[in-house]
């Protein structure tokens, strides 16, 4: 009888652990970056590539991307490297032409 209870306990524990792992690795629809409030979506602002970066363009791109913050990064700028999912980065060349738009 002890052996049956022990095996049932082991199987139950294994099933619970596997269930916990599965739910932790698959985010719900509400957890996707484009659905969360303030999280940046750079896909919707790719049409700004090729334009000249101005404060007005920066604000338009920030609003369209749903980012809380935005910054223009020139070739020789010193920047922080921490990832911020709520920030839009607009990378330009030396003449302020937008070369890349990304979140982080």
Automatic annotation (TrEMBL):
Domain of life of the source: Bacteria
Pfam assignment, any one: Inhibitor_I78
Residues of the signal peptide: 1-30
Statement: the UniProt record of this protein carries the keyword Iron: no
This protein's UniProt keywords: Signal
Keyword Cell cycle included in the entry's annotation: no
Name of the protein in its database record: Peptidase inhibitor I78 family protein
